[in-house]
Design goal:
There is one protein chain. By secondary structure, this protein is of the alpha+beta class. The strands form 2 sheets. Strands 1-8-7-6 form a 4-stranded antiparallel beta sheet, with no helix packed on it. The longest helix has 18 residues.
Length: 301
């Protein structure tokens, strides 16, 4: 049974909501009635139950508008390709209803990006956000904390932006968003991208994998560095690689960027990667590739 608040809004705004659904169906012919009905019951109704009477229209209207797009693309609802947007709406519902127009699209986007980035950890992000939300009521601050938590959960390319946010936030809030157990940990995070050995031990961090197993690389990659950045090539494809203790992410780049880079010498690669085929160094990181692996090995410089 839908709650009375939701039923009331659906009735009073029926013409507008139906028009939005019809428009979404024209843009996404595969939008499924049953799937969206399930989304209303499982995701919108819990928000409506938490919404204050004077904000119910805004909460439900925003959830309806965003939900149409998410369900149409099978990113939320009972047919979702991954569970993390549904989980985010459920676990952060109390925060979403306070600032729906700011937080519903932003948190949905964050959950999707984490869910679709290899090696990222959406579960960790949600755990951090639940803890952070207990200490924050302001939506703008919560959005900033969300970016810091996303970096902590594996989006390495967020590092520079996250460091600026950390400097602007109260240290206690930044600590919670990072899951830091001490101020000393926070200081190490700011000082170096490798706050500990990669992957938390004395081994290396291995980034990327064979395309046949769901990775990026069709052939074993090569690596170069230019302007303190790492570029990776596999076949005709090139990526910018960002990495730190929290994770590694790849971003499309050009062959010209790769060719402009240079290499380094490296003697300490583990034997299981075969012959070292390339190595490159930045200020903080050494990257190595080998003939027997489709991964890029990363070492703290």
């Amino acid at each position: 049974m839908l709650c009375d608040v939701l039923i009331s809004v659906l009735r009073s705004a029926r013409a507008d909501l139906n028009a939005q659904f019809a428009q979404a169906r024209r843009e996404h012919p595969t939008l499924d009635d049953a799937a969206f009905t399930g989304f209303i019951e499982q995701q919108i109704d819990p928000l409506a139950r938490l919404a204050h009477e004077d904000s119910a229209f805004e909460v439900i209207g925003t959830a309806w508008e965003c939900g149409l797009e998410l369900v149409a693309q099978r990113l939320a609802g009972p047919q979702a390709r991954h569970p993390w947007i549904n989980e985010t709406w459920s676990r952060l519902a109390a925060q979403l209803v306070h600032s729906p127009r700011q937080l519903i699209p932003a948190f949905s986007n964050a959950a999707h990006q984490l869910a679709t980035t290899p090696g990222a950890r959406p579960q960790q992000w949600l755990d951090l956000m639940q803890n952070t939300a207990q200490a924050i009521t302001d939506a703008e601050t919560l959005l900033k904390a969300g970016q810091i938590a996303a970096w902590r959960a594996g989006l390495a390319h967020y590092r520079e932006g996250a460091l600026k946010l950390i400097a602007a936030l109260e240290p206690k809030i930044a600590q919670i968003a990072l899951g830091a157990d001490s101020a000393a940990f926070l200081e190490k995070v700011v000082a170096s991208p490798w706050i500990e050995k990669p992957a938390g031990n004395l081994e290396n961090l291995r980034a990327g994998s064979f395309r046949g197993f769901g990775g990026l690389f069709i052939v074993p990659p090569l690596v170069k560095s230019v302007n303190d950045q790492l570029f990776v090539r596999s076949g005709d494809d090139v990526w910018l690689l960002t990495a730190d203790s929290f994770g590694a992410t790849f971003h499309r780049a050009t062959l010209a960027e790769f060719e402009a880079g240079g290499g380094s010498h490296f003697d300490d690669a583990p034997p299981d990667i075969g012959v070292v085929t390339s190595a490159a160094r930045t200020r903080h990181t050494v990257a190595v590739t080998g003939s027997l692996t489709h991964a890029v090995l990363l070492f703290a410089a």
